[in-house]
Design a protein that fits this description.
2 copies of one chain form a homodimer.
Chain A lengths: L1 H7 L5 H7 L2 E7 L18 H8 L2 E3 L2 E2 L5 H10 L3 H4 L28 H7 L3 E6 L18 E4 L43 E4 L2 E5 L15 H18 L4 E6 L21 H22 L6 E7 L27 H4 L3 E4 L8 E3 L3 E2 L2 H9 L35 E6 L2 E7 L2 E4 L1 E2 L26 E2 L5 E4 L15 H20 L9 E2 L11 H4 L11 E2 L5
Parallel strand pairs in A: 1-8, 1-9, 2-11, 3-12, 4-5, 4-8
Antiparallel strand pairs in A: 2-10, 5-6, 6-7, 9-10, 13-14, 14-15, 15-18, 16-17, 19-20
Chain lengths: 545, 545
Amino acid sequence: MKFFRGLILGFVNASLNRKARPNIIYMLMDDLGWGDLGVNGNLHRETPNIDELARSGVVFTDFYSAAPLCSPSRASLLTGRLPIRNGFYTDNAKMRNGYTPQNIVSGIADDEILLSELLQKSGYRTGLVGKWHLGHREQYMPLKHGFDFWFGAPNCHFGPFDQDYPRLPARPGLGRGRAGYFSIPAFDDKHTPNIPVFENDKMIGRYYEEISIDRNNARSNFTNTLRVRALEFVQNSVDAQKPFFLFFTPDSSHAPVYSSPAFAGKSRRGKIGDAIMELDWAIGSIMESVKSLGIMEDTIIVFSSDNGAACVGPVEQCGSNGPLLCCKQTTFDGGMRVPGILSWPGTVEPNQINNDVTGLMDLFTTGLALAEIPIPSDRFIDGKNLINLVKTKHTKNSRKSSPSGTHFFYRGDTLGAVRRGDYKMHVYTWSGTKASSIWHFCRGQNVPNVTTEVQTDHSKAPVIYNIGQDPSEKLPLPTKSAEYKQQRPILEKIIAEHQKTLVLGTPQLNYCDDSVMHWAPPGCEKLGKCLPTPASNYAKCYWDH
Amino acid sequence: MKFFRGLILGFVNASLNRKARPNIIYMLMDDLGWGDLGVNGNLHRETPNIDELARSGVVFTDFYSAAPLCSPSRASLLTGRLPIRNGFYTDNAKMRNGYTPQNIVSGIADDEILLSELLQKSGYRTGLVGKWHLGHREQYMPLKHGFDFWFGAPNCHFGPFDQDYPRLPARPGLGRGRAGYFSIPAFDDKHTPNIPVFENDKMIGRYYEEISIDRNNARSNFTNTLRVRALEFVQNSVDAQKPFFLFFTPDSSHAPVYSSPAFAGKSRRGKIGDAIMELDWAIGSIMESVKSLGIMEDTIIVFSSDNGAACVGPVEQCGSNGPLLCCKQTTFDGGMRVPGILSWPGTVEPNQINNDVTGLMDLFTTGLALAEIPIPSDRFIDGKNLINLVKTKHTKNSRKSSPSGTHFFYRGDTLGAVRRGDYKMHVYTWSGTKASSIWHFCRGQNVPNVTTEVQTDHSKAPVIYNIGQDPSEKLPLPTKSAEYKQQRPILEKIIAEHQKTLVLGTPQLNYCDDSVMHWAPPGCEKLGKCLPTPASNYAKCYWDH
């Protein structure tokens, strides 16, 4: 039946398709923390549109990213699989956070199946507006992986690379990888090109050049540019009478944060607040467009973030993880618990709260279910269909007092923790740096034997939290308590089963090479923006933390 | 005009009064933290009724208690004055949190003017349902201080005192004061009576005796009892055709927390969550009653808490301060920033957020303004009228990007910090205990030079935060920054002016005496519950922290 429907998709009336299969808008913010939204208790309540989106549907309170940083998290959303399975990790060193800086050699593996690919094949019009971050060499780019349309950049808006930043010393035997924007020693313009912005498969300019970012004043109009492109994509999709998938991934809340002059100083929170207020406004604008085009009841909108807020450097560059422990880069809840909002007026009932253990990987499976596409059966899929957990006009799921679901907290190649229901067990911890460092990922927080400055193996005496009672991970259960003794074997068994059946993906984030940087991206000729490509210096990437 | 109106109040039609002057319901929770409400981002969202109250009016995000613990905070609400002015502090030792255990000798001074007294005089029917905590000797009790009706207890529900707790060793030269429920060494029944519950001026029983509390299982029906009494008071006031003031002060969220069997295990948060869910239900019941009696538009409801959540002992006994630093007992925001909700349907517009620096002392002035009573002019009043800060059908106050207002953070006799607008300056810090202690008031948190284990005078190099950007007080402004240099003289001037004009109240929390405990409260004869009163051992109270 499904197969037959697939065959005739091209022939049936497009508006019929739209009724049967909803449009899908996934909005994925960058380094926005759990506590950055009014609806999640941000002290300043500066996100009225996102809060309204939340009221119109479901807030998932226990929604996790699949990794404590950007590239692996995004790869997991689109594949429905943990980074350890889809290859978005490094084993150059233990428990290191790899991602895709512009000298990364690899990207999303061809044998991974992406949500965008399946939606595109099944008749959806697919668009990515914003950051990609799954690899930037030709074979890894969005249009090769299921997107009909792309406007945005392949990497973060780090830079400018043509100023007098200190030069990175060569590391003997290692490539010049980067592992966190603050520690990226930028080069002069002869050594590092600025990141290009693409429209489809051609660059249209570079950050800090044609795409203006005033880093000193945290100003750029780029969020508005992305907003306009998203609105155009929605409008064009409606005109084309096809169901659409919009993946909206602005990155202004990632340091160096920025906002348009119209939002300068609007927030009490400083620059990060201005950026978030503009994102909220842009999202409100997309919501308004969906409404005014009359497709609100045919469109599901999901809002989330790629990982917890970063908390290094000045507070003006940092989001908020609310009451959660630590930040981006860690396997504590502050690193991986992120906002989770789902709205589908007319189908999903409003004002719902869901406390199940859910997350970004579920968006793969949910998207396929919405589009009536079978889940791939030839590989392990971590995601589940979120619609099965919420109240809809068809189903009567109600809130449970005990949450269901399991989540594995990986940092690079290492499993740090597992959560099942209300219990989270840490087997390997690392805050990442010394508490005295300005790079400390648990700033102002200190839980003895948990926020460890060095990598610490707890497998012989795991740290267990009742996350329901202690969501801030402040007070581990006493090892002699009945609760600890009851939970430990349950959680250890879950890990053992996971590890027994785990098929490791080939690590994609191991090798760097300066020759693969954006010297001469497609389209550079037309703009006269091609730079000479240096010789290859292919080597293992160095990942700091 | 006002004077004349006062004179004729007794003669005019009561229902006319009600229209002109709203009923006032203040709901003050006990040790409920800023982060305990769904509307403030509690991870579990278990307070639908309070959240609904918030949506129907104003959320004050920067709402402070006048003290980091119970008795002084309550005295300040009712007097509109800081504890250092109204006498609810101790100078037995520096920066100590005194309160009113049952061996305290004093209470609210007769020359303080209470909101309840002024409302009663002006024709309001005044009722206290719940904990009093402003002194329990005859002259300090609620009916002597402006309340027509009282049902509740004068002290916390500590106990039971008839079990084999270790006996408190005598402290040479000091009375047997107590300074925190966990450190209260309870006595056997010959040494310490259980706390009585009063109806008006007569006891009707004692906690753990007639008023059942099963401490082991955290069970008691007392919240429901208070709810029923509150509903009766509202109904009786409507029947009496008089405007009313209900001060509703349940204490089940104060350790040892409790809830009715109907709420046992309902919350993911454990016992504290069960208690809060029951409080939310009780509050919903009062809201429903106000609605069904047809007085919703004639009734203003304010919801708050006496201080930040406590965070000592097991997490099941602890509320949440969300992203704020430290807990009850401290001058950090976690000790004193509390929920602040105001609802007055038909007059105050719904869905408002106010970020001004506000607090419990404002409820004195707001209450007087609502009742058209002049503010006392013979003394300094710290409170201001909250209605002037919000949008009403008459006024168009709108949200400001920079908050107004000033707050002084005292702990006992010592000024710890001051806040003006978005800046908070700490001049004296003390977390209260060693970080290694289970009594640490900043559990899991550690901000160097701020969460100090010993009392630390910062007056020579104050610690300044931009609370707008850094509400978690994690990253003090660098002393060399322009922002620091700009703010320091402003904040120092505010302190200097405050101290220059400060008239110290006579400290009421200095002396303890076991003979003043509840041996033979009024009404004990009728119940056969009088205990023999021991000889006086009047001495200075000992306050731990």
